[in-house]
Amino acid sequence: MRVIITGGTGLIGRALAADLVAAGREVVVLSRDPQRVAAMPDGVRLEKWDGRTAQGWGALADGAEAIVNLAGESIAGGRWTVARKRRIRESRLAAGAAVVEAVAAARRKPHIVVQASGAGYYGPRGDEIIPEATPPGTDFLGRLAVEWEASTASVEAMGVRRVVIRTGVVLSPEGGALPRLVLPFRFFIGGSLGSGRQWVPWIHIADEVRAIRFLMENNNAPGGAYNLVSPNPVTNAQLARALGRVLRRPSLIPVPAPALRLLLGEMADVLLTGQRAVPQRLLEAGFTFRFPELDAALTDLLRGKNHKGHKG
Q1: Spatial separation of the C-alpha atoms in residues 28 and 5, rounded to whole Å
Q2: Is 176 strand, coil or helix?
Q3: Residues 158-214: pLDDT tens digits?
Q4: Under CATH, which architecture does the 2-170+203-231+276-287 domain have?
């Protein structure tokens, strides 16, 4: 069956697309500029879209198994200027509107829409344990996530099952946070960020893909929001020590919070605050993590046989 992925050229989208193709699915990834996309997994079909409408691709939603909406400008691509924050928000809302347009036009509706979001939904909450029922934060990422999640909510009134995936920090050697975290340790200057007491809601890329597929394929999993995070969140200091152990490097040199704020501006808050999010609903639905513990996850990603790209 056909799965359409918006934002499918990113870290999560590529891994998910490869896994679905290997399972025999027809996978269509939407891209604003297919000619410039670096090699996608074999068997993935690229289709052009404008990031705002269903023009040119909407017919593919007719009879599709799923639409996975991951599209949105990266929050980690630079300082959060007023203009950049506007682009981050508008890219997400526009992609959601395009998905709704495609679903509305489809005679045979997709079985499910998987809507991306992030653990930043909850805002900074110190040591509070955060299941999915926790209300949203009032900071930029919290307000953004509320709107992002709502962008596809209207498909539910069309009879389409919808789940929202509030993803934490995805650990993969192929991109995202992990290569940036590892680099200082390679040069023996690794350490925690700021106080190190902030919580990091992490997940191994293989479990991220497995959880998305579990929610796509398990009709008994109720709709609504799911935290896609390990059941064992860690503090930033614990993460730094684990990286040191796995890489066999010291973890002695913290990065002061003022230096991060000087370098990154408001975006530094993402690194200096965190969420002790837990996957309560995912566990209740019967999902089993392959990598629930950080040391085993990092060992697999950085020292295992698949260290150049985990295949799930």
Answers
A1: 6
A2: strand
A3: 999 999 999 999 999 999 999 999 999 999 999 999 999 999 999 999 999 999 999
A4: 3-Layer(aba) Sandwich (3.40)
Position 122 scores a pLDDT of: 98
What is the Cα–Cα distance from 216 to 20, expressed in whole angstroms?
Answer: 11
What sections of 49-109 are H helices per DSSP?
82-105
Interstrand relation of 175-176 and 276-277 (parallel, antiparallel or unpaired): unpaired
pLDDT mean over 90-98: 98
User: Residue 104: which pLDDT band, with cuts at 50, 70 and 90?
Assistant: very high
Tokens of 32: 């604003």
Q: Where are the domains of the chain?
A: 2-170+203-231+276-287
The pTM of this model reads: 0.95
Look at residues 22, 65, 7, 6 and name the one whose alpha carbon lies nearest to residue 210: 22
Contact between 2 and 64 (Cβ < 8 Å): yes
Backbone angles phi, psi at 148, to 5 degrees: -60, -45
Query: Tokens 């566990």 belong to which residue?
Result: 283
Three-state DSSP state, 243: helix
Distance CA 213, CA 73 (A): 23
